[in-house]
């Protein structure tokens, strides 16, 4: 793996490797030198419009121009990213991902499969405990809440809450942004609808969500198409249930054609956390660690904020007055997030079971 | 064509002994097909072997039938069934419509440029699938689609009020046919082309009507290629996911969507069940292939 | 046949309507980028990107190599099976159907597993090797279409008689295949070439996971999460691919003539 003979590199590499597996970034300069010597970073599944990753990656490249960034398959799902690590175990070429950004539930399972390299970033302590692995195998990176993205041309008055969606004026308008039997975004959407009806967290909310969508479908308000920016603009899916950061980014790219409202519902506000991790078989582990250092620095976190995602160190940044006012002004008001619920892994797992297994049977939006 | 090949086989039988005398010639046919098999083994079968093996393993790596048994769930069985129905419907419609178009452009007496334009267009359209195709049909026949709106404003006909819905079995089949027809056109045109002018003239000289010419000369000649393309269309539709996903995503439960959910998904990720689903798809394709071969042999005899 | 011509026009007319109307709808939507007026804004954004030419050129080159590889693999095999080995036909036909039902992502992950930089056949250890592996992957995806097209073409000519005639005249096997059989099935090979070309230009999964600068990943990059650009992209990609195929069609007129194709 290390073909380079630079003394500084081999020394710092040896120190990093020889020390315990959990390495704190004792010397950022050594890490930068080691990363630059590796010269490459391979990422996967990072669409440029997702959380402003385009600008975040550009910022990293500007800061460390000696490191080229290979971006693999921005369309990949969390399952693909884990599969990519497994398939590239023996490959050190630019097809092997160094870092992954996956849904919360994938962190522990990937760690159990031995696919992750633990690393605790220098800002480790300012990250909430519930959003990181105790050993540093994975770290929560950002979250968003489910919201309604509304095409103002076709929907005169936007819904304010889940219950509004059942009203007759929203016939043939509501769609999920994914397949509720497989997509994290869609499943959390169903879950949030269930929570808004007052059901208990976990399986109960999942079942309640299914009932909600059954009512929605029976009322003729549900459109069983996977909604995207194009279908929103064209009119097939004028109301889209999607993460707030996707809705806001979508609003920006549409540039008022059509004008879009982004509404965080009053009840049933569910936050979805994604996690960042380093591949145990990464060909460029130091570049990967540097990438994580960048993401969890103030600069990286605010980069995500500009992409409308709430960075995981949001509370810490707020406490230290580091949140830029102009960026905050573009987000929905902070009160909307006050009642945000962070489902635990267990609750998510049980709800997911209920929703994926019973969607077809209960909601019956099935085509025979 | 069948008559010719039988007499050829008789000739081949007569000339076999001389070819055996030249020892060097015997393995040539095996050398000729070797590149294909080496390629298939190295780049198709071995790389996907982990899928076959994975279907029979669980997470701990032990051999098990539980994934195959899990295929018997009602939702998965229903998915296979719907996939087979959509594939059958779109391949049959696509096949006959494609054949009609191919005959029209080759023998219909249309201007020459129409034939090459149609062929090249079909080449492109055969691969026009996935999100762009689904979106194109939503933009045409969706609730706010171009045709829907035009029919409503110009003729006063609201197709949705009459029960039409693009998000349905037939809507999906209609969309699939968009890439099935061109595939048939592109592949069958050389076969129609091969119908020599002399045959038509000979048939006319012998007093055959147009219908008899078609029934006794054209159809038997084109039939095996036609059938072969039908099975290709079937497998093509069976494995297609992107279009269905983009069009009917959460409402139509077809097998490739299930498969993707398991091996690629954000949430489910039971890769072994996914492999079992893929294994089931391969088995069904194999059975379809066997049926096609049986049907072709039977019908060739019947058409003689 | 007057009535024959009439029906031909009817069939062609229905076909043209069915195929063009969805394209018109997509085109109409792509013109709506500027609010309130039709404009080509979406097209300017797409075509103004510098990577358009580079990635399209890469994919065209890959397509040409894929077509050559496909012909080299499929034509001899299809020929020998028709001539001498009909018992292999069911196996070969089944194998050629596999790429249609095995997802491309499974195939490419299989390649990465088997041909990674540390394996006995390290395709992925160098750029050239990775490019070669991509072309091989494309040829695998195009296999069903190429085989069916070539097999159809071989059925329309009398393979046995042509072969024997050539042998009597003293031709060796390579001469028979390249100078007797191939020109006679050129239309069919061209069909297979068209289908292969379209597949390679639009392919995304393999190129993006093998980290190659192809047209598919570029299209995805520009169009993801946009509303109007993907529609413009679809029209542009359609038009350009159609143009390239027409070019191939015209160039094929310069290919060796055969008795079956007097024009």
Total DSSP E strands of chain B: 0
Order of helices and strands of chain A: HHEHEHEHEEEHHHEHEEHHEHHHH
Write down the CATH class of chain B.
Answer: Mainly Alpha
- Biggest sheet of chain B, in brief? none
What's the alpha carbon Rg of chain B, rounded to whole Å?
Answer: 24 Å
- Name the chain pair whose interface involves the most residues: B-C, 98 and 92 residues
Oligomer: heterotrimer
Strand content of chain B: under 5%
Number of helices of chain A: 15
Q: Compute the separation of the termini of chain B in Å.
A: 9 Å
Poorly predicted regions of chain A are 1-25
CATH architecture of chain B, by name, is Orthogonal Bundle
CATH homologous superfamily descriptor of the largest domain in chain A: Periplasmic binding protein-like II
CA-based shape of chain A: globular
CATH class of the largest domain in chain A: Alpha Beta
Uncertain parts of chain B = 1-24
What is the CATH topology of the largest domain in chain A?
Answer: D-Maltodextrin-Binding Protein, domain 2
Describe it.
The complex is a heterotrimer of chains A (368), B (304) and C (263). Chain A contains 15 helices and ten strands. With 368 residues, chain A is α+β, with helices and mostly antiparallel strands. Chain A folds into two domains: 7-141 and 277-327, D-Maltodextrin-Binding Protein, domain 2 (3-Layer(aba) Sandwich), CATH 3.40.190.10; 144-271 and 335-363, D-Maltodextrin-Binding Protein, domain 2 (3-Layer(aba) Sandwich), CATH 3.40.190.10. In chain A, the strands form two sheets. In chain A, strands 3, 4, 5, 6, 7, 8, 9 and 10 form an eight-stranded mixed β-sheet that branches. A two-stranded parallel ribbon of chain A has the order 1-2. In chain A, α10 (285-296) packs across α11. Chain A starts with 6 loop residues before the first helix and ends in a 5-residue tail after the last helix. Mean pLDDT of chain A is 87; it is low at 1-25. Chain B has 304 residues and is mainly α. Chain B has a single domain, classed as MetI-like (MetI-like fold, Orthogonal Bundle). Chain B is built from 14 helices and no strands. The longest helix of chain B has 34 residues, at 74-107. The radius of gyration of chain B is 24 Å and the shape is globular. Chain B starts with a helix and ends with a helix. Chain C has 263 residues and is an all-alpha fold. Chain C has two domains: 1-39; 50-252, MetI-like (MetI-like fold). In chain C, 76% of the residues lie in helices and 0% in strands. The longest helix of chain C is centred in the N-terminal third of the chain and has 33 residues, at 51-83. Residues 259-263 of chain C have low confidence and may be disordered.
């Amino acid at each position: 793996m290390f073909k380079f003979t630079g003394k500084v590199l081999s020394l710092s590499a040896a120190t990093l490797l020889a020390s315990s597996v959990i390495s704190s970034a004792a010397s950022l300069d050594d890490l930068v030198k080691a990363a630059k010597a590796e010269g490459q970073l391979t990422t996967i599944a990072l669409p440029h419009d997702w959380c402003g990753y385009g600008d975040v990656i550009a910022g990293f490249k500007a800061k460390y121009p000696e490191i080229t960034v290979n971006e693999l398959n921005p369309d990949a799902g969390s399952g693909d990213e884990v599969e990519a690590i497994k398939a590239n175990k023996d490959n050190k070429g630019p097809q092997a991902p160094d870092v992954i950004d996956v849904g919360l539930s994938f962190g522990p399972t990937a760690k159990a499969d031995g696919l992750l390299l633990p690393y605790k970033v220098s800002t480790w302590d300012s990250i909430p405990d519930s959003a990181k692995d105790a050993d540093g195998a994975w770290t929560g990176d950002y979250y968003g809440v489910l919201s309604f993205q509304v095409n103002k041309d076709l929907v005169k008055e936007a819904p304010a809450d889940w219950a509004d969606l059942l009203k007759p004026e929203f016939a043939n308008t509501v769609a999920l942004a994914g397949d509720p039997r497989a997509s994290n975004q869609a499943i959390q959407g169903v879950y949030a609808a269930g929570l808004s009806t007052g059901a208990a967290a976990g399986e109960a909310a999942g079942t309640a969500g299914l009932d909600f969508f059954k009512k929605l479908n029976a009322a003729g308000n549900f459109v069983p198409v996977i909604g995207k920016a194009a279908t929103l603009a064209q009119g097939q899916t004028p109301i889209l249930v999607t993460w707030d950061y996707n809705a806001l980014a979508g609003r920006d790219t549409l540039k008022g054609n059509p004008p879009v409202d982004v509404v965080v519902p009053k009840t049933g506000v569910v936050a979805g956390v994604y996690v960042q991790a380093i591949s145990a078989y990464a060909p460029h582990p130091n570049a990967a660690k540097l990438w994580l250092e960048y993401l969890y620095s103030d600069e990286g976190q605010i980069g995500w904020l500009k992409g409308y995602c709430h960075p995981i160190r949001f509370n810490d940044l707020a406490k230290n007055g580091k949140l830029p006012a102009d960026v905050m002004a573009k987000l929905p008001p902070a009160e909307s997030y006050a009642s945000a619920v962070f489902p635990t892994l267990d609750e998510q797992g049980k709800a997911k079971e209920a929703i994926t297994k019973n969607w077809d049977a209960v909601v019956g939006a099935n085509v025979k | 064509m069948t008559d010719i090949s039988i007499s050829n086989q008789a000739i081949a039988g007569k000339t076999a002994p001389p070819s055996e005398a030249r020892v060097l010639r015997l393995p040539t046919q095996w050398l000729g097909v070797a590149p294909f098999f080496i390629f298939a083994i190295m780049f198709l079968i071995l790389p996907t072997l982990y899928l076959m093996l994975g279907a029979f393993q669980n997470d701990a790596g032990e051999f098990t039938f539980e994934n195959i048994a899990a295929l018997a769930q009602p939702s998965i069985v229903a998915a296979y069934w719907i996939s087979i129905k959509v594939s059958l419907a779109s391949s049959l419609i696509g096949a006959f419509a494609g054949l009609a178009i191919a005959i029209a452009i080759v023998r219909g007496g249309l201007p020459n440029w129409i034939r090459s334009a149609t062929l090249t267009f079909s080449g492109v359209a055969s691969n026009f699938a996935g999100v762009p195709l689904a979106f194109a049909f939503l933009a045409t026949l969706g609730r706010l689609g171009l045709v829907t709106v035009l029919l409503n404003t110009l003729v006063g006909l609201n197709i949705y009020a009459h029960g039409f819905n693009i998000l349905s079995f037939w809507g999906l089949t209609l969309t699939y046919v968009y890439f099935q027809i061109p595939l048939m056109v592109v592949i069958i045109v050389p076969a129609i082309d091969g119908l020599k002018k002399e045959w038509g003239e000979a048939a006319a000289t012998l007093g055959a009507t147009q219908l008899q010419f078609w029934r006794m000369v054209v159809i038997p000649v084109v039939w095996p290629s036609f059938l072969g393309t039908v099975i290709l269309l079937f497998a093509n539709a069976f494995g297609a996911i992107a279009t269905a996903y983009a069009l009917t995503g959460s409402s139509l439960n077809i097998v490739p969507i299930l498969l993707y959910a398991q091996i690629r998904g954000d949430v489910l990720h039971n890769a072994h069940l996914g492999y079992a689903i893929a294994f089931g798809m391969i088995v069904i394709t194999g059975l379809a292939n066997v049926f096609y071969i049986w049907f072709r042999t039977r019908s060739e005899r019947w058409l003689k | 046949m007057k009535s024959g011509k009439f029906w031909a026009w009817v069939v062609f007319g229905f076909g043209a309507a069915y195929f063009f109307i969805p394209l018109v709808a997509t085109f109409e939507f792509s013109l709506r980028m500027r609010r309130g007026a039709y404009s080509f804004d979406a097209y300017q954004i797409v075509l103004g990107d510098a990577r358009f030419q580079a990635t399209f050129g890469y994919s065209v080159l890959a397509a040409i190599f894929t077509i050559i590889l496909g012909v080299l693999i499929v034509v001899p095999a299809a020929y020998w099976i028709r001539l001498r080995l009909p018992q292999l036909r069911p196996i070969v036909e089944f194998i050629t159907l596999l790429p249609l039902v095995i997802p491309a992502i499974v195939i490419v992950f299989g390649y990465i597993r088997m041909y990674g930089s540390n394996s006995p056949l390290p395709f992925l250890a160098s750029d050239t090797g990775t490019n070669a592996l991509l072309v091989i992957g494309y040829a695998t995806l195009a296999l069903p279409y190429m085989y069916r097209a070539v097999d159809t073409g071989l059925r329309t000519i009398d393979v046995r008689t042509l072969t024997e005639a050539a042998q009597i005249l003293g031709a060796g096997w390579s001469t028979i295949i390249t100078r007797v059989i191939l020109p006679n099935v050129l239309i069919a090979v061209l069909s297979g070439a068209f289908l292969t070309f379209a597949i390679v230009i639009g392919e995304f999964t393999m190129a993006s996971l093998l980290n190659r600068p192809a047209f598919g990943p570029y299209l995805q990059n520009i169009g993801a999460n946009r509303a109007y650009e993907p529609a413009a992209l679809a029209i542009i990609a359609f038009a350009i691919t159609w143009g390239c195929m027409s070019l191939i069609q015209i160039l094929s007129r310069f290919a060796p003539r055969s008795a079956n194709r007097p024009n």
